[in-house]
Amino acid sequence: MTEHFDEDKAVARLAEILALKCGIHPITARQIRIAARLHDIGKQRIDPGIVQKPGKLNEREFAIMKTHTILGAQMMSSLRGSIGEVITNTCLYHHEIWGGGGYLGKSAADVPGYVFIHISGIARRGIINVDGHSRIWYNHNIADGGNNQWIYKRY
Length: 155
Prior knowledge:
The chain is mainly α. It has a single domain (about 1-125), classed as Hypothetical protein af1432, CATH 1.10.3210.10. The chain has helices at about 1-20, 25-40, 50, 60-65, 70-75, 80-95, 115-125; strands at about 135-140, 145-155. Helix 1 (about 1-20) runs antiparallel to helix 2 (about 25-40), helix 1 packs across helix 7 (about 115-125) and helix 2 crosses helix 7.
């Protein structure tokens, strides 16, 4: 459980860094970080036998698991202000795909751009620590109309 918690923290921090690199206001970037930590909260309403099942889910179990996005958005929908909007939308749309075909079938035009920053954080987590001293990731730069670029920073 600690390993998953640490991974969530790392993805959340990466989402915040990506947002800042895209030129998003620091307050919104912080909201994206918080939303990234809460994106799977809907899984609390899914049968633990499905959520914790080792191996592949069967078709019925996968259909149930996919509802965690809607459940999470419902759980967070009472939050007010921009933070509530960012968290709710991240819960709802974090399994959507840029060109369409995610859990809800939405495309980039239907999903707030900051959700794709979070998704990019998840997708890129595996290549962030390239050599122990560097960070590298591919960025769909939402802030300037979707121009793609490599971001590389040496620490």
